[in-house]
């Protein structure tokens, strides 16, 4: 059985993404580069990282529902995990995106919360 390896990222909607990112940087130490609305926090395990991002309030990236956040889970084998979810009857998007830093897929839990799965490149 495929299992989540950890949290790959947390994504938050905001009316003013830059101001909210600045607030998190100032008050919680989330490193945010000038002009960007995301920060990267290093995990306690070598070579792993967790991404923290702020998106505009009207983003469609979190799916069609009213969710104000989305969690990204790191997985070892994206295809196997997506297949396992399909077998269980979960709503799984057919689309898989491939980048230099890994592969991504999306599914929705029984309560309608969209989540992202990330298989990092080795």
TrEMBL record:
Q: Which residues form the VOC domain?
A: 6-120
Superkingdom assignment: Bacteria
Tell me any Pfam family this protein matches: Glyoxalase_6
Q: InterPro entries annotated for this entry?
A: Anthracycline_SecMetBiosynth (IPR052164), Glyas_Bleomycin-R_OHBP_Dase (IPR029068), Glyoxalase_6 (IPR041581), VOC_core (IPR037523)
What the entry lists under PROSITE patterns is as follows: VOC
Q: Which SUPFAM superfamilies match?
A: Glyoxalase/Bleomycin resistance protein/Dihydroxybiphenyl dioxygenase
The name on file for this protein is: VOC family protein
Q: Report the source organism.
A: Gemmata palustris
